[in-house]
Amino acid sequence: MSGHSTYQPKTGFERWLDSRLPIIRLAHDTAVSYPTPRNLNYWWTFGGILTLCLGVQIITGIILAMHYTASADHAFNSVEHIMRDVNYGWLIRYMHANGASMFFIAVYIHMFRGLYYGSYKAPREVLWLLGCIIYLLMMATGFMGYVLPWGQMSFHGTVVITNLFGAFPIVGEAITTWLWGGFAVDNPTLNRFFSLHYLLPFVIAGVVILHIWALHVVGQNNPTGVEPKSKADTVPFTPYATVKDGFAMSVFLILFATFVFYMPNALGHADNYIPANPLVTPAHIVPEWYYLPFYAILRAVPDKLMGVLAMFASIGCFFALPWLDTSKVRSLRYRPTAKLYFWIFVLACLVLGYCGGRLPDDPVIPGLKTFILGDSDPNSFVWLSRIATAYYFAYFAVIIPVLGLVEKTLPVPETIASPALSHPAPAKTEA
Amino acid sequence: MTLKLLSKAVFSKAMGLALTGALLAGGGAMAQAPHPEEPENIQWSFEGPLGKFDQAQLQRGYKVYREVCAACHSMSLLSFRNLGDKGGPFYAPRYPNSNDNPYVKSLAAEYEVDDIDSETGDVIKRPAISADRLPSPFKNEAAARASNGGSLPPDMSVLAKAREGGPDYIHAILTGYRDPPAGLKVDPGKFYNPYFPGDLTSAWSGDPAHIPHGGVIGMIPPLRDGLVTFDDGTKSTLDQQAKDVSAFLMWAAEPKLNERHQMGAAVMIYLLLLSGLLYASYRKVWKNESH
What we know:
The structure holds 2 protein chains of 2 kinds.
Chain A: H1 12-18, H2 23-31, E1 35-37, H3 46-67, H4 75-84, H5 89-117, H6 125-147, H7 152-164, H8 172-180, H9 187-218, E2 234-236, H10 237-262, E3 280-281, H11 292-300, H12 304-324, H13 336-356, H14 381-406
Antiparallel strand pairs in A: 1-2
Chain B: E1 4-5, H1 13-25, H2 55-67, H3 102-109, E2 112-116, E3 123-127, H4 141-146, H5 159-162, H6 166-175, E4 191-193, E5 215-217, H7 238-253, H8 257-286
Antiparallel strand pairs in B: 2-3, 4-5
Helix pairs in contact in B: 2-7, 6-7
């Protein structure tokens, strides 16, 4: 990994193994001696938290798969069987269902942290792209997982989302038929989604290994955005990062447990406890909360194909980001103007998420009717989504490229350790 | 009914696309019917981090279900043995295996269920046992609709989780029937209920700015004062019956709630201690390092 390996095999067995398969050396270099910047704050603990989330999802998922039946006739009741008759089945299922939400909370914080501190900038472009791929895989996995209980939202959500591919000219219809495995969402769709839902987490795990590999080649970014220059700037991963990550994981688990034990259905939708019925469409079809910003972008565009393209482009922006940012300064800590636009971007994403869960024509300010602009009252969620969508794309396409060229930045410190750190060591500071 | 019955054409690609189109267009210029009224927030015994089901209430609720609801509503995910499970209405510590619980056995034996004679293969009737599922009142969906003016009484196994508002909503529906306001046309066999989701725009001939809240429901007002006699002497008001059966339905939908809350308390204490220890370790490890 980065730098020279400091592993010293201590026992005869370790020496024997080290010359044949240096796996202990790999673990030591990755998780013990790996140098981390000493100024990492708690926003950097989410990488570890995400690994924990992936582990929880895979373990609970494998157990659920032992009791689940992927069949349009039995899926709903097999989930209820897990809830009622399997020992601690309710716990495993609620952990898995809420674990998905926790996974997305953590990944969004992780992504915003990368945005704020410029973690996508050279030389971390590949690291960032691998992260974007993980996020896309997570979206696909989460979506297919929500289909499996075969409730009303599962079914009709699948109808809506798979139909999006039908918007593409010429190939659209063929793609949807191919996705469905027939001419409607039905048993073949459920079976293939189950198969893929089981496969993709292991693909994610594979890309996570690449992501960590890329991380250990270039080293972690840090709140100053200045690369570590000497040993004075770093501390070994163990015990310094492990204990801090461990504490953060434990606090995160408190949040997780609050949902699992006290509000396990708060993030779900009541309609998904109604068995899927193709003949009855729920009044409001809404995706899970973590897709709502993209759903709002989709609905903000009046044309279906353009809406679908806008939705995909909104994720595509993340892939292009390393080459859109023109600033020489990495961390927003030293870019006051960019910081302001960043927080507006965070607000725009939250607004989009809120709009995605509401009916497009409902008024934002209750009871206020103004006039019809285009297809709707300006005081409506569809118009609010349009404003937020416009800002979303402007942030990537205009604000980030232009701001890097024109803004006045604050002076950047020489090294991580040279300016006063927020928590200086008592008495004589160490080298 | 808020849930529109679509024709079989929903299977076709065209309908799927139309559905997506409607979502994308966001409903266009359709007038917005008012949302149903907010259900009253009831203080349930099972609310809060330490909440648990009130066994006496569950027993009363089962009686309301058995004598009233079960005439039309199935509860196909429940077996009689579940009634004697830990946390359930008829749990008795003497019978850790609920199949042995004599009271549960006697409740089951009140029903006759279909079986196959293993000697002849003929369909026969026999008294139900604890392991049997609660029998459904109708043979199939068509029979259920035929007996209920075209409406389908939903299965109640997970009803309390399948409705926004849960037990509050069920209680509000059961106690919320009103005489329809003047100007609202309600078909015979249907009943106005301000808590039931729906769109009354087309049935309303009054002021278009004041469309009534709620919708029309196919269920005849099922409960009234004194309808069910409670064995524990609780006064059998409409409100009491509605509360008890709502609690019973919440138990049926979430039978492991007591266990979940108990385990939650232990997990929380464990995690708080672990976090404290890890924080102390963190402070100790980083004590002499600037960061």
